[in-house]
Design goal:
The protein is α+β, with helices and mostly antiparallel strands. The protein folds into 4 domains: 208 residues, Triger factor/SurA peptide-binding fold; 131 residues, Chitinase A, domain 3 (Roll); 116 residues; 90 residues, Roll (Chitinase A, domain 3), CATH 3.10.50.40. Helix content is 47%, strand content 17%. It is built from 23 helices and 19 strands. The strands form 6 sheets. Strands 16-3-18-17 form a 4-stranded antiparallel sheet. A hairpin with a 2-residue loop joins strand 9 and strand 10.
């Protein structure tokens, strides 16, 4: 096997993730996806294999759905694309196709026995006894929409891929000398004395000259650049707009009220003070004392040898309380105190502190809300029909103005507006429905271009046209003088703090006591910290400090900026390199190294396959499809 594979590839030169090579059972059907091509929508060509847009979209949607389990239901395709997930999906399919190409060329075919063993080992196909269950096998395949033949074909292909990957990564076990070297490198620590120099250490910043301001202005144009502005025309329509013209009959409103009556019913709510103790006798004493004193708290204060305390229970309906407590508590009169009640948590005494009576909102009070809901429901149906007609009009060549007139869309023209919604020259920005969505769409358009019809989560449909694009430009110095002064002072204060840090570093090198240096310059007390190479124990110290210390020799000094406040001077006082590691740690490190070496081998192998077979990715097809939604 290994000789066959090695004969197909050249040298191995780059690294990519090993994991992208294997298509697991979690993405069944990937082989069929390669062959399920949409018309003239090829995203990638891998030798003779074409990967269709439909295949990419199916796999990408599966990836997005998996991420929703982590980030929640709001996570969508747009966020996934911004995170690079679409590119990762394409790469995964390309790598799978590379392996499939090699499988076909080399004639790799797992035996029937290997396929049968793989099926029998799958937990999803095992019955209660832990052995293969044919009935369950058929049931799972049926639920997945797969025939037995299709599944066996996919499994055989997956096993062939695993044979290739296993052969490539065979022999990846790291030698002991490598594990030892990795341990010494990874677990080396550096200890340093740190003297922070916050910006507050700079007592006074002198006023700048005009020449200094002009020089700073010219050296930092991005600080004073006006953003890109766009003049937009927006046409929009929402269900709320259409609902204003809808009418709903009295009978329909009344029927809806009856159908939704539970929404308008409010249960009785009660709030309590509660005491929980371990035994009934103590609870009875507390209840009696509370009745005599007028409250649980006052009753507890009259008792000796009790560590019980009052717990306030917020107002709630009967349904959310423990049944035992609800029965006793909701039977009390206002300010009443219950008899001891037992629950799994102990013995309770309840005292009512508030009662809010339940009731039903009368029809006349609920009428307006129900009528509006029914109007919106009817308007949504109309809105969907109008949206289809608008799309037909756009497809037929109609422009935004024509569409707006034909369908009665509200049209608004904006002053020059930036992506964040700010406007130029303090102009007044008109109210825009779904403004954030409109601006996001508008700033993807070329000048004069009209967007597609876009709908939002709030049920607003809109078209937007970029009438004019005003490129970013540096504002004149007269307009930004206040900002210029503030920016110059901040930069100068930071420069002066850096000079103080450099002076501290020089004194540390000379052997001065860190505490004395800090006291002389009015700086915070020095600190001592020990760091690992990966910066995992850096805490609030910047990772650039860790990098500087690991590039230094013992006794060297370094100065680096703090993320938000000044600089820090550091003296490297100790370098500790571990000599040996225990067996358990060595085994874990060896496993990590083995995985890393296997990843490298697979990465280089895949890169060699790409060069030999040839891979062409049509990114314009992807961009056009996902831009259109």
């Amino acid at each position: 096997m290994l000789q066959i594979i090695r004969s197909k590839v050249g040298s191995w030169v780059v690294k990519i993730l090993f994991a992208v090579l294997i298509v697991s059972f979690a993405v069944w059907g990937i082989g069929d996806l390669f062959r399920d091509r949409g018309p003239d929508q090829t995203v990638a060509e891998v030798g003779d294999i074409e990967i269709s847009l439909q295949a990419v979209n199916s796999a990408f949607q599966n990836d997005v759905n998996q991420m929703r389990q982590i980030f929640g239901p709001e996570f969508g395709a747009e966020q996934a694309i911004s995170m690079g997930m679409l590119d990762q999906t394409v790469e995964r399919l390309v790598n799978g196709a590379l392996l499939d190409n090699l499988i076909a060329e080399a004639g790799i075919a797992p035996s029937q026995e290997a396929v049968a063993q793989a099926i029998s080992r799958q937990p999803m196909f095992q019955g209660a006894t832990g052995s293969f269950d044919a009935a369950r096998f058929r049931q799972v395949l049926g639920a997945s929409g797969l025939t037995e033949g299709a599944y066996v074909a996919l499994l055989r292909n997956d096993l062939a891929r695993q044979q290739i990957v296993g052969a490539v990564s065979a022999g990846a076990e790291p030698p002991t000398v490598l594990v030892s070297a990795l341990h010494r490198y990874r677990d080396e620590t550096r200890t340093a004395t740190l003297v922070p120099v916050p910006l507050s250490a700079v007592e006074e910043v002198p006023e700048p000259s005009e020449e200094e301001l002009q020089s700073f202005y010219e050296a930092n144009p991005a600080l004073f650049e006006a953003p890109e502005y766009r003049v937009l025309t927006v046409a929009s329509l929402s269900a709320a707009d259409l609902a204003e013209g809808e009418s709903v009959g009295e009978d329909l409103v009344r029927a809806e009220y009856d159908a939704r009556i539970e929404e308008f019913e409010t249960p009785e709510m009660r709030a309590f003070d509660q005491v929980v103790v371990e035994d009934q006798e103590t609870a009875a004493r507390i209840a009696e004392a509370a009745r005599e004193a007028g409250s649980l708290q006052a009753g507890l204060e009259t008792l000796e040898n009790t560590e019980a305390s009052v717990i306030a229970l917020e107002s709630a309906p009967r349904e959310v309380m423990l049944p035992q407590l609800a029965e006793a508590g909701f039977a009390l009169e206002e300010s009443g105190v219950s008899e001891p009640v037992e629950s799994p948590f102990g013995w309770h005494v309840l005292a009512v502190t508030e009662i809010a009576s339940g009731g039903t909102v009368p029809f006349e009070e609920a009428r307006a809300e129900i009528e509006q809901d029914l109007k919106l429901e009817s308007a949504l149906d109309s809105l969907f029909e109008i949206a289809n007609q608008i799309e037909d009009g756009l497809a037929g060549g109609s422009g935004l103005d024509e569409i707006a007139t034909q369908f009665g869309l509200e049209t608004v023209t904006t002053p020059p507006v930036a992506r964040d919604g700010s406007v130029r020259d303090d102009a007044e920005m008109p109210d825009l429905q779904a403004q954030e969505d409109v601006l996001a769409e508008a700033f993807q358009l070329a000048e004069g271009e009209t967007s597609r019809l876009t709908d939002t989560a709030d049920g607003v449909y809109f078209l937007v046209r970029a009438d004019e694009i005003i490129e970013p430009q540096v504002r004149p110095i007269e307009e930004v003088r206040t900002e210029l002064l503030e920016a110059w002072r901040a930069a100068e204060r930071d420069r002066m703090a850096q000079e103080i840090a450099a002076d501290v570093a020089a004194r540390l090198t000379a052997g001065d006591d860190p505490a004395t240096i800090a006291a002389d310059l009015g700086l915070p007390e020095p600190a001592t910290a020990t760091f690992h190479r990966d910066g995992s124990d850096a805490g609030d110290w910047p990772t650039t400090l860790v990098d500087a210390l690991f590039a230094a020799e013992s006794g060297d000094t370094a100065t680096v900026p703090m993320p938000e406040d000044g600089h820090v001077a550091a003296l490297l006082t100790d370098i500790t390199v571990p000599e040996a590691t225990d067996d358990e740690a060595a085994e874990a490190l060896a496993a990590e190294a083995e995985t890393a070496i296997g990843n490298d081998l697979a990465a280089q192998f895949t890169e060699a396959l790409r060069r030999e077979v040839g891979v062409e990715i049509h990114r314009d097809t992807l961009e056009q499809y996902y831009r259109q939604g």
